[in-house]
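note to self: the first set is below, dont mix up w the second
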Amino acid sequence: MFHIFQYRPLRLITQTSLSSVCLKLMLSRPVAFAQIWKSWFSSHSLLGNKNIILMGPPGAGKTTVGRIVGQKLDCPVIDIDDNVLETAWNMSVSEKLQDVGYEEFLEEEGKALLQFSASGSVISLSGSNPMHAAGMQHVKKDGIVVYLDVPTTVIMSRLKSMQVDRIVGLTPGTALRDILQFRKQFYKRWYDIRVFCGEDVAAEVVAEKVLDAVKRYQDSELETFISTRCSRSGRSVEKDSHRYFSDVVIQGLAPDGGLFVPERGLPKFTAGDWQGLIEATYIERAQVILERCIHPADIPASKLAEIIGTAYGENFSCSKVAPVRHLAGNQFLLELFHGPTASFKDFALQLMPHLFAYCIPRSCNYLILVATSGDTGSAVLDGFSRLDDADKQRIAVMNFFPEDGVSPIQKSQMIGCQKENAWSVGVKSDFDFCQTAIKQIFNNSEFTGFLTVEYGTALGAANSINWARLLPQIVYHASAYLDLVHQNIIPFGSPVDICIPTGNFGNILAAFYAKMMGIPIRKCICASNENNVLTDFIRTGVYDLRGRKLISTFSPAVDILKSSNLERYLHLIANEDGQLVTQLFNQLENQGHFQLRKDLLEKLQQDLVAGCCSDEDCLAAIHSVYTTTGYILDTHTAVAKVVADRLQDRTCPIIISSTAHYSKFAPAILRALRIAEINQNPLSQLHLLSSYGALPPIHWGLLETLKKTGNGDHQVCAADMSVLMYHIETLIQSHFM
């Protein structure tokens, strides 16, 4: 018998030894034993001595689904309302509620739950059971709690058709919707597994979802990660190459120099799953999507919900978090700049620090190394500085950026975001050097080993090479599509194109992942500035850095020649051929170029199209959009706007990712708006822009940071690996020792 534990921080499932009878049968008649074992496992191993506990609002279908699950497992089914409460009270639940009133009913119901005991059963709770803490603690210790999460509008429709006009808590003057929304906080407190149920999902289908979810909960071995450079024997991978989500968050870069990817791919959502999220908030969408991508053995669902609520709650200035705004014609802007540091990087970097802090061993210190072309630096510094005091003592951040390769406001922001556990270092080189240097430091086992032995400190990565950076970006691409459906712009299932200013390939890869998970994205459009190596590659299949020099443009966040996350995409379209990926990127490193096979280029061009934009066209687009709409694009969004205008066929909506707030690039914006005299003080530039009364308003967080920055200091170093390692060791000595 297997004993399934509610939470397994060490990923261990304890197993008693087989009985002597089973052992003899296994040895003497292996085929017969296998058949018996398979039959037993299919009907009983999901339970053992544990219960499957179905929880959800009235009308969620707990009773019906419970009966089906019980039939499939051939185990007892217990309905708390019918088999426990009404038996104990000798009256119906509705009569009891009418007899004692709301508050007394909850207490009586909780007392009955405390007296209840069962094992190896499927239990359907009442809709109000989760509101009694002691009662829920009692039943939860003996089972796996499955939350049947049904949209509120669907529940209201079901209750109306069932002619239910009274539920616990519904008093005169209280709206049913408000009661149902109020109850959600209690359901979210107790569940181990969420099963999301759309409007027209049959109970049989929900029951299968429950069984699949419980199997997933029990077996985290199915959700492992491999390196993009991992060699396969046939279709198998060496077991010591496997990593779990918690491992890849901590390690960042794979030991062989590749990037981690899910071995079995990302989960697929049905059309019904997505449609059930149309009316959900951004936080609710994030919870549902990320729960399916992060195994509860790594981060329990309740903890993940807490982390997501912290990340996307008060830290974002817009209640919608990532709103979609109509720009003109069939073009829509996905505004990704409402976080504390005014760029799309906040979506990952308000979340990732908390994931990282949860996953790392409590006994070890970690130094996070970051390379930035502009926006990542301040987002990392801000995100890790929001950890609680205990975590800040054991987790520090060092941010390397090209000293002369970011905008003045970006630099001021990175200096202003320095805190007691977060520092910035300017490097006299470009972003590609910073990113390559960090990769080499991670792969320098002598140096990393020295830091561990001498200082008890390990290195971690927060660049988009870290899977935990990439994963949260999937959510806002999915959410943007759902918002268009919710606004009645399109019916669900109609395609959209997405255009993204692209440098390191992470954002556009996240959009492609959203497509793989079931969002109807037709084309992902890659928008380059004058550093158009990606555009050339997508058009020709040749990635060629020979003779290329990085050009400093008005859109510095995409001033990149080596796009790290491209490796993940190529691994995917090459059918996970790690040997080929290794060959391509070794050739790029050693010879400065590689060329895709014709079949892979054809696959790539089915997914991606690309175009590029000059600085002149970028500024012209900012001016044109402002004069016609009163809206100011930032320089990166303007690059995407120019490319979208050139490449879209206008047969479907196109969502342009607005990746940063224009305030961060004030000198270029003022030039685009044809302001003759520009004050060099960043704060003065923002005040000048605010006087235009344009949309969106000046970013609140950026303005506050610049007010605090003044003449803040930061360290500057030469483009030399030994110098960077010296700075790393010095910081470790000062913070952790």
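second set (the one i keep forgetting abt)
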Amino acid sequence: MFHVVRYRPLRLITQNSLSSMCFKLMLSRPVAFAQIWKSWFSSHSLLGNKNIILMGPPGAGKTTVGRIVGQKLDCPVIDIDDDVLETTWNMSVSEKLQDVGNEQFLEEEGKALLKFSASGSVISLTGSNPMHSAGMQHMKKNGIVVYLDVPTAVIMSRLKSMKVDRIVGQSPGISLKDILQFRKQFYKRWYDVRVLCGDIAAEVVAEKVLDALKRYQNSELETFISTRSSRSGRNMEKDFCKYFSDVVTEGLAPDGGLFVPERGLPKFTAGEWQSLTEATYTERAQVILERCIHPADIPASKLAEIIGAAYGENFTCSKIAPVRHLAGNQFLLELFHGPTASFKDFALQMVPHIFAYCIPRSCNYLVLVATSGDTGSAVLDGFGRLHDTDKQRIAVMNFFPEDGVSPIQKSQMIGCQKENAWSVGVKSDFDFCQTAIKQIFTNSDYTGFLTVEYGTALAAANSINWARLLPQIVYHASAYLDLVHQGIIPFGSPVDVCIPTGNFGNILSALYAKMMGIPIRQCICANNENNVLTDFIRTGVYDLRGRKLIPTFSPAIDILKSSNLERYLHLIANEDGQLVAQLYNQLENQGHFQLQKDLLEKLQQDVVAGWCSEEDCLAAIHSVYSTTGYILDTHTAVAKVVADRLQDRTCPIIISSTAHYSKFAPAILRALRITEINQNPLSQLHLLSSYSPLPPVHWGLLETLKKKGNEDHQVCAADMSTLMSRIETLIQNHFM
């Protein structure tokens, strides 16, 4: 496997008090250095000569929090309002505002910032300082900007109690709420660290500020391990830590395991989650992903740019992932509003930009993908939207079962091909495609040959890649927050989620959201007739002996080997990598394994499972359409059937609607009992559209199917040497 050495920013070494011995130790043994630094840090200023700059709206508590932080760190505290502006102007801020007016005030305030200089201090900005670009650039040169992110409703309440009804920049006819919302764009532009505040005491906010700064300065603590690595092996390999940018690039761990964060995922308090109930989807994504990705890997400003590119004009619904009431206590989480009409778009509109940012410029990359249907078109579309310069160094090769996807899915994958993205049909099933890619990644002779001969490294975009899971955590959390925002439940009340499941990535993301503090009571795993997961969750026996993959109406979950289950087993086994390695070696060699009783009991506390026949799937589509006018896709119908059977109706249940029904038109037309079906996919969509269904036929699919040349793609035999030869040919054609 090609390995990239990344030079991560280490701002800690700016401290003058570090001895040359420590500096040399840092270069040779980063973990030992981190331990020395931890001891050193306990008796020194948090950021040395750097300033801690508190930023936020008026009423955020910047002045009070600044004083507490300064006292804890025993360093100077400067309030821009009191100590800089009023001293410079020889008049109060309110008098200056009355004297010169809004626009001139902002300019005068900015000029005062440009003349200001300090080091090793805690500085509390005014609420309007961030609106002056040059002034903020000057401040950031020697400071870490901490954004005290307080919900607008809390700020409004505080300002009302302070009898403040106007702030800087507020013109006649513009409400206080509107100007507060307007200012957020400026706060988001400048911060390095965000602290979710809510309506909590200043002392608590100050502690959160210090915790956030410690995290900002200690990226070495956020490392990743393999699900198959032993604890003793980890201790021996500490000098070879993997960070987020590494695992995005490498995809699969060298030992065949999957990467997971060594210290687990971050926890949000109930108050932090509640502060996001009024937020938009992209705002929630920004906050959640900032906590999961260290700024040394992707700074907050770059992350915002990536999220904006992923969820901007590419999604047809402004809510991105809306929650729709279906019937009774059942709600649908609509995950099909992206460009390729499936939940895969949530990760795969974002991951290509993350990948392009994380990889070094000195190497070309070929991203390999195996798909059971939806992943392929989503990967091709996502990487096809990269900037032209990135397309020249990043290409994608998508393997799919030639006869194991729906006709529209195949047309879509072929239609999504770009100058740097190709589809290859394989004369086998998805499990062969996925296993083949894993074997290619662990074949060091082959990957080494590609690196030496062609300067090209391989990477993965399947859900084995850690970055694929993070955006999925966001939509599970957001769905719960939407129910709270709509008044369906108060925060803290539990919900169940039911997810059509094949490779276990989507349901794993829901389990991760639960770990992070979202009150999910249980996750319901919904299978079709390929029900190996249902059997496993009920019995603890994962048994592939004698099983053959059954082609169904829900092909995206026609999977027998569920890759991401490995991450969940590692979690409930208390990170016992040796046990996980033993289980998966047994599965590989003997075709089965069995969980010990205590682990099965842990699993069953979180997950229950059921499966759905083909007949019941079609019947559910017909029944829901007859009663509501809404059309479920085949995968969502599987989840609906299983939810009806397993839910106890004591709390709401959120059913993940993972794909748009347009992708499975023949099955949908059959479920609706339409007998005369034209074999042309475009004609099928037009026929469905004539029924004025909810939701409407997906525009992106229509546009893709209208493209000419949808029949052009490569097809190859289910043979490893053939696949490897195709990969080498593609590399020669694209990169050479």
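remember for set 2: The longest helix spans residues 466-485.
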